[in-house]
User: What shape does this take?
Amino acid sequence: MTVKFGINLVNSTTFNILGDGSIQFEAPPANVPGSVVVEVSGNNQQFTRDLTLHYRDVNNTFEYYQDFLVTYINPPAVSNRGNAKITLKGMLFDQFQVDVNQSILCRFVDQNNPDM
Assistant: This one.
């Protein structure tokens, strides 16, 4: 079995076949953000196709987004007690915003231990 994201192929050795009829794997990287059609093949030759002719079918479309870019943080440091208002400036924060009241979440990562 092979899965294709646009022109990028996913190696079949990375699949986890789940009991509910689905497969799980990591999405391949993309050089450019945007939508790609996801196609599946059992023989690496004949792939499934987009189901419609005039627009992309949402059932087999995957979206790559551009990483956010933080350009400014104020203040640059606060007490370890937290609960301080911080302002971030940057780019692409609004790419998923559906309405003006939608929340955007931020996570703080320890530079010495990014997995924590």
About this structure: The mean pLDDT is 80. Residues 69 and 91 are 5 Å apart (CA to CA). The two ends are 35 Å apart (CA to CA). The beta strands are 2-5, 8-10, 16-17, 23-24, 34-41, 61-64, 69-74, 87-91.
